[in-house]
Amino acid sequence: MTLVIPALPPVLLPVAGGGDYPVGRIFCIGRNYADHAREMGGDPAREAPFFFTKWAQAAVPSGTTIAYPPQTRDYQHEVELVVALAHSGRDIPKADALSHVYGYAVGLDMTRRDLQAAAKAAGRPWDAAKNVEEGAPVGPIHPATAVGHPDRGPIALAVDGAVRQEGDLADMTWPVPALIAHLSTFYRLEPGDLIFTGTPAGVAAVEPGAVLTGTIAGLEPLTITVGAAAA
């Protein structure tokens, strides 16, 4: 094979205990906590989850200083449980869904909220609001063989040491098995796919210089610094 332009390098995230996880695709579930759904003006009783995507290149590891992105004055944090898949499958039954999971991590779905609000008002896609360079930080991925399959326990986000988001994984409207089963009706899920599972209430804007720390019981924290505006 002769490449006519340089290929992008693979996106790798550290695994707790050693090794790297290659990122394929990133799927994000919207409004999977009732309090956040209401916070964003949504209805937590809707019938099925909805999702959007991010490029793999949006994923960056804990300890990164991410650039404040252009075209926004309202860059907001959303702390989430991230599911890393190990096996492929389509139309996966909920009862079999967890067998497809490699592990779990703390993640941030960073969002240009002003662009999202404008897109909603115009009935347009959210891509520019959600698919942001360095907009999907992910902490160390813990193999499920080590931590099990977390379905309850505190999830929180602090900015400069002050807690802004707090919730419990048990508050998810659609637990992880239901999310995997639902996504697999649209796509053949593959090893390397990441699923961001939604965020509790308390999302808010950050400014350059802010230090964000995401925590989930049983997982290593994720720490990110918001840097200066992107060049």
From TrEMBL:
Residues 26-226 form the Fumarylacetoacetase-like C-terminal domain. GO terms for molecular function: hydrolase activity. It holds the Pfam family FAA_hydrolase. Gene3D superfamilies: Fumarylacetoacetase-like, C-terminal domain. It comes from the Bacteria. PANTHER family: ACYLPYRUVASE, FLUTATHIONE S-TRANSFERASE. This is Fumarylacetoacetate hydrolase family protein. It comes from Sphingomonas corticis.
